[in-house]
Amino acid sequence: MTDEPVPPLPELPLEPTFMDLVATLFAAPMEDAETLRRQLEAYLDKVRHAAHTDDYLDIGLVERIDQALQALLAVSADRDDDDRRLIQTAARYFIHEHDALDDLSSPTGFDDDAAVVGAIARHLGLAALLPPGL
Fold this sequence. Notes:
5 helices, 57% helix
């Protein structure tokens, strides 16, 4: 995809500790939805594998986050570039293992990912795409 000028990051109701990475990912070059889907699939496989030995990982939450991201990516083609950039930011935050709360190191490692995905979906008016509990 061609690099367009990066619009300002909208204000999102997230903890400041999450926003540094959100801003960095928001400014990153755009990727197509299929590339993001493949990255999500690879990361989900990695987390499922880790869950076999780390029983504290909330695989149910991880799968709900993935479900929400897949739904957001499915509608992204019908959205404008700014919305697609936000959806990409949500996906990239999830697949960034060492974000505000290290994903695989604690039982709450995916709580920040859920917060980011939920905040972006709600900001875009797409809260109906969020599974229960997200």
